[in-house]
Amino acid sequence: MAKISQVITKIEELLMIILMAALAILMIFAVIFRYFFKDPIPWAGEVSIFLLIWTSFIGGSWGLKYGTQASVTFLYDAVSKRSKRIFKIVQDCMMIAFLFILIYYAYKWMMNPAMLLQKSSSLQLPMWIPYSAVFIGLIFAAIHLLSHLIDTLKNREGENT
């Protein structure tokens, strides 16, 4: 599971680089076209929102792997090493359960017949494509958490704890 998590991490990092670069380039061109050529790009706002959504969910998963989310640790810091391990196991199990619930509903939402027929306003892109960012980001996050849980259960605390 750790190898799968590492491969996903590499994919996430590559995707975040590509998506953020595309977003930056698109926004620069959108500003240039709007203010210098007086001819705005009609689909730039829509695409930038889709790129930001994808970056947010992929980045959230990546951040979860490395534990970069904000947390309150006063209780965790005050307990023994054994209790910390138990806290990590309980936390991971609760987060995995929550993620699986979210994955279920994200899939159900994404595969809703009305959603499958919906198209974006400017590009006429099927909306399941931008909405799939939620599902894929949650799947990646669940894999990272499962890997972390397995490492914790094996008492093999890695750099991603």
UniProtKB/TrEMBL annotation:
Q: Which UniProt keywords apply?
A: Cell inner membrane, Cell membrane, Membrane, Transmembrane, Transmembrane helix, Transport
Location in or out of the cell: Cell inner membrane
What single Pfam family name could you report for this chain, choosing any that match? DctQ
Example of a GO biological process term: C4-dicarboxylate transport
The membrane spanning regions, by residue number, are 14-37, 43-64, 85-107, 127-146
Matching InterPro entries: DctQ, TRAP_DctQ
The Tripartite ATP-independent periplasmic transporters DctQ component domain covers which part of the protein? 24-154
Indicate the principal place this protein occupies in or around the cell. membrane
Membrane topology for this entry? Answer: Multi-pass membrane protein
Q: Which GO terms describe its molecular function?
A: transmembrane transporter activity
Q: Name one GO cellular component term.
A: plasma membrane
Q: Which family does it belong to?
A: Belongs to the TRAP transporter small permease family.
**Protein name (Swiss-Prot/TrEMBL):** TRAP transporter small permease
